[in-house]
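Table S2 (continued). Query chain:
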Amino acid sequence: MAELRNHSSAPNGGRHPRATEPATLFVTLGLSVVGAIIGLQILTTIGVTPNTSIIGVLIAILLSRIPLSFFRRFRSIHRQNLVQTNISSATFGAANSLLVPVGIPILIGLPNLVVPMLFGATMGMLIDLAMLYWFFDSRLFPGSAPWPIGIAAAESILAGDEAGARGAVLVGSAATGAIGSSNVFGLLTPIIGVSALPMAAFGIAFLGNPWALTMLGFGLLTRAYLPGPTGIDINEQLIPHGMMLGAGLVALVQAVLFVVSREREKSNADLINNVDNEGDKRSPTWEAGYTRTAAETRAALLKGTGLYVIAAIALAVLGGLLTEMSIGQTALWAVFAAISCVAAEFIVGFSAMHAGWFPAFATALIFLIISLALGFPIAAAGLLVGFVVSGGPAFADAGYDLKAGWQLRGYGRDPEFEREGRKQQIIAALLGLLAALVVVTLGHNFYFERDLFPPVVRVYAATITAGIDGSQAWKLLIWAGPGAIIQLIGGPKRQIGILFSTGLLILNAAAGWAVLAAICIRLILARGKSVEGSPLTIMAAGLIAGDALWSFGSAMFRM
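Corresponding output:
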């Protein structure tokens, strides 16, 4: 694997570039502030955040091509990975992890909770980042798992570094992705029913877990077409929410059992020692070991849960919940908040890892509904949903970034280099999140005073103020059963219950057709084998990059 070895070789005498090098630090701090502001602007004006992992890649590549000696060092694919990680973390952190929670207290008429909520959201965001770092490349969240957006980011960086045939394929497929995602296809609306094609969904289906993605596609189509002939509004009946609740609880139990099991693991070192002289000719999809042991993963789960409990208690005290609830109720709230955060983390993480989609906002809504059914007061429910929603995006986005770095560093074949590079990525991500915290702290009033709230905040606020009755709680419980059964059938390695429920939560028929069509093409061309390392991977990365670039550009134009 000469090609792989050339890309993954360690610079600087075997050491990974550091995120705190003066030049790198100067660039990433500046870009993270810009990224955070862009994230806030797009989320408040357009209502969504674009694929910032890919946008970060494109910015890093452009940076490396500036004809000045200062920027020459950014020709390193590993420094580009640090820049990409930083920008992505800042954008997602500011918009999804911080601004959304902070807006909730204002819309439910409790502006005095903004500061406590900012504290809780910051803690949730940072704990989730820490837990992803502790979990990544373990049996629970392997580096060898799909993480489709991460593969797309790595392929884009490699194509920008190499140019040549790889670059040509990437550029061509990126152009196709941008055209398909634009309004060029508006002329076909009467025929295919959409004005733009979901090219990112099409590309992701070539990279993710085919079982999970197939169920995602079926879920998307069920949500879109079931109401027509049946007259059932599955969203109003809380069918997606109930099924996700059941699937999520089973997934959490499966994850815990997976972590505590004592099955022997193969480390990367074990596998490398068993590679024969022909090993360099293998595909990069070799059966990788793990750089995190089972003992480390078990410790991570305990540490993370403990940190969430401590953060929830602190949030309850700062939010004045003791004045509205008894000590026993407050303790119950803190434990429920911590468990909700861990459960949401696994739901979002498994979705992102297997299928490149993560229903962070919808998952938080489920736990909000449960908190209302449990009878928690408005203030407690508002703080809980903000606390839960703060972590998922940080976890999923960091997973994509670490997957990109894992691939660029040689698929984990040099465990020491992989661990050092991962540490530097987490430092870069932390700098991005801290920059996001500063931007949101100083700038959230600018948006809220102009009534610029992310749309999902209005959904949370409306749900809290309307409350929930017993019939709605029963709907959740009834549909939790089928979700749990589907998740049990698929097992922890397929996550079909989580992904089918994810599809039910999203109204996007075109994405459903795109995913299923791509899965069929993939099965025909790859005959069931992994496509990683093949031209299909580069093509898929280009489609995702083109879609992200068009979405980002059009969002900036509309602001």
